[in-house]
Amino acid sequence: MRPRRPLLTVLAAVLALAVVAGCSDEDPPAPQRTGETTTTVEGSDAGTEAQPAALERYRDYESQEYDDPAHWVCRPDLEDICDSDLSTTVVNADGTTEVQEFEPAEDPPIDCFYVYPTISRDATTYSDWDASDEEEGYVTLQQAARLARVCRVFAPIYRQRTLTSLGERLAGAESDGEDEGDPFADVLDAFSTYMAQDNGGRGVVLIGHSQGSGLLNQLLRTEFDPNEDVRELLVGAYLAGSAVAVPEGEVVGGDLQQIPLCTEAGQVGCVTTWATFRSTAPPAEGSLFGTPREGGGMAGCVNPAAVGGGSAELQSYFPSDASASILSSLGTETTGRTWLEGHDFTTPFVSLPGLVSGECVVRDGYSYLEATVHGDPSDPRADDIAGDLSPEWGLHLVDVNLVMGDIVDRVAEQTEHYTG
Q1: Residue 266 region, left (φ>0) first, then alpha (ψ -120 to 50), else beta?
Q2: DSSP secondary structure string, 185-207?
Q3: DSSP per-residue string spanning 364-395
Q4: Considering the domain boundaries, does residue 33 fall inside one?
Q5: Domain for residue 52, yes or no?
């Protein structure tokens, strides 16, 4: 068993630190794109069949680590945590409930490539390959598994910088050089392996949170932004809990020179990015999100529930434990909060229509998704949500849960435009 630090030590580090930053056996034919070729596959009865081939730049790529199925949290050809129960209890404002069953797409035309946030509490500087259902698996279930309604989900394990090491580094501890790592090298290897072996010219959505978003930002800068053939496969990117820098008043420039922020629903080849703070607790000086970590410009903000701007109800999917967040599987203390007094939930997820709305705003130099909780003491539902860490972090722990339904809907719209 891999060593772990005590939970209170891990949570103290989290509070103090900035984040570094089903499926069929045969893919459907993908739309022909620039730089795409086809191969001919012999069939015993059907003669020959044209199948899309990998982009030329990835065709001969030899995987370093990701030929091993154990190095993936989720893949469409494996039985894994993404195949877990995703059913949801919808809790209406009047206290009535209904169960919403989850139905994955049988033959989705696009893929989703997901990179999870800082979640490992291994005692080392960088995590190992031993992914845990309570850490990497749990957060992937919360943030990516539901995308199976619109895409095939690929979620690699990567040797990330751990919660423990971030805390030690902030405290002034210096690396002894014996435990070096490169999380981006793993993500690039995983993506290149996917492109060589699985993509076959299909459109792809990138989605990440926190450290995962930072790594996908780097992937966009190195693989997509400078290469037209790769850009043409980008259906969209969803980078939560991080910052994509743009010049003030602009939607492109800064981090990315060719790929803009999304400005309307259904737009393809663009980035949706946000970091969430409560309307009652906006970013104060020193906040960790809502501004670029280095360089000029401002942090882009695109609300997945209202891509063109303005306020909208957020389609949230929360754990059925009303005290839970992406860290809750690590044994965090619960508050005793419940979504509906006296109700025993039999589904792993809960949705509460109308409880939270959100709008991208710019205030005091910070650009962020402002979440307003519409608690009503006169109705039987909960009046608040979990997800806070500290004033500097805002609602970081529920950046994705808050808008999970909106992300799925936006990807569906983008897919329709991309494949149409």
Answers
A1: left
A2: HHHHHHHHHHIIIIITT--EEEE
A3: TTEEEEEEEE---TTSSB-S-------TTTTT
A4: no
A5: no
CB neighbourhood size of 198 (10 A): 18
Residue-number span of the structural domain to which 246 is assigned:
7-18+64-419
pLDDT at position 171: 66
Cα-flanking dihedrals φ and ψ of residue 185, to 5°?
A: -60, -40
Per-residue pLDDT of 287-332, as tens digits, reads 989 999 877 899 999 999 999 999 999 999 999 999 888 886 544 4
SS3 of residue 91 by DSSP: strand
Give residues with Cβ within 8 angstroms of 46, minimum separation 6: none
Please state the domain count of the chain.
Answer: 1
Cα–Cα distance for residue pair 204/147, rounded to 1 Å? 12
Please report the beta strands in 210-340, taking only residues with DSSP state E, as ranges in sequence order. Answer: 234-240, 245-246, 270-274, 276-278, 298-299, 312-313, 318-319
Rounded to an integer, what is the distance from CA 397 to the centroid of its chain?
A: 12
Q: Which residues of the chain have pLDDT under 70?
A: 1-52, 169-179, 328-336
Q: The tokens 């205030």 sit on which residue?
A: 363
